[in-house]
Amino acid sequence: MPKIALTDLAIKALKPTTQTDYWDTGLANFGLRAGPRRKTFLVLVGPKRRRVTIGHYPDWSLHKARRKAMLILGSPPAPHLVISMAFTDAVESFIAHQKKNNRPSTVRETERLLRRHFPFTGSLATATTHRITDIVGELPRSEANHAFVAMRTFFNWCVGKQYIQASPLAGLKQPYKTLSRDRALEDHELAVILKAITPPTTRYDVMIALLITTGQRCNEIGSLRPEFINREAQTITLPAWLTKNNTQHTFPYGPLTASLLEQYEFDEEQFKSWGTVKRLFDKRVHLPHYTWHDFRRTLSTIMSRENLATITAVEALLNHKTGSRSPIQRIYDRHDYMPQMRAAVLAYEAHLSHLMSP
Fold first, then answer.
1. Same-domain check for residues 104 and 212
2. Do 305 and 346 share a structural domain?
């Protein structure tokens, strides 16, 4: 009877031609019976080593089966017994949990950070403080901070699940101080970008232009659907599941945005390749470092500088939950600021049109 370290990767790789029992090296009397067509978790119970079936894989996950085996064998799943759980299995369970409580884009980024930078193949115990900090120390500043936070969140979750007794990152701070961005494009810089994408020659030009004219986030513009747009009222309503603060957001748009929406290529899938578009666009337009998100700050700056709108109307347009208005004021002030937002949008689009003129 072969003994192996049972992990999800090991189980998936098993393709025996005859029925074979594989016994876990991490938990005595727990194993997997694998055949050509089925894989079944089992335990050996009592002096006579009676086989007890737990369930079939993958209907039963390895983690769930191991915990059930511990209960059958009379060994409660305490932290010091579960620490042999494979790092990859723990990550897989963590990502499944994240999908239930976070936006898809957040889950994708967390999974990317964990799988790309921390390819540990052993148990959770092999992911030591020194190994993690060595990896993080080799990363660029921003990526290092994001990777560190992802790992810290993952290990805190593992502690809560009693996979480990303590996080190897407990008490540590992220490697670099987070700096708030303050980049707002100057008018001449914005004019360079607008002239490069006017008239739009690709679907990406349209999306970049919409980021500028609406001030909305990349994932929101990349997820537009025809049903979000009320062309008669000239408004766009973003559903709560799409926005950062999980609040439905309705905002007006002007004629410049209306012409862009006529050229927008709607898709069932969210557009995610903003990084690739940015790298290609930077070859067309050479400006000091800026990000797509800076367009939101640029819109707010121009509206304040040119006295196009009050700060309250700007925050309503950008769908900010916090800012100049206190929570108690938001409770009692139920005005949607639609007239103020519309006036601001029309004035802002007129300003953009002026920037594009010869």
1. no
2. yes
> Of 51, 77, 103, at which residue does a domain stop?
77
> Tens-digit pLDDT profile for the chain (358 aa)?
688 888 888 888 898 889 999 998 878 889 999 999 899 999 998 888 888 999 999 899 888 888 888 888 876 544 444 446 789 888 998 998 898 888 787 899 999 999 999 999 888 888 999 999 999 999 998 899 999 999 999 999 988 887 888 899 998 989 988 767 789 999 999 999 999 999 999 999 999 999 999 999 999 999 999 999 999 999 999 999 899 888 899 999 999 999 999 999 999 888 989 989 999 999 999 998 899 999 999 999 999 999 999 999 999 999 987 666 666 676 677 788 999 999 999 999 999 999 988 7
- Indicate the number of domains in the chain: 3
> Angle, to 10 degrees, between the axis of helix 203-214 and the axis of helix 274-284?
100
| Residue 217 one-letter amino acid | R
Structural domain range at position 148:
87-160
Beta bridge partners of 31: 23, 42
Q: What is the dihedral of CA 10, 15, 20, 25, to 10 degrees?
A: -10
Q: Residue 205's domain is classified under what CATH number?
A: 1.10.443.10
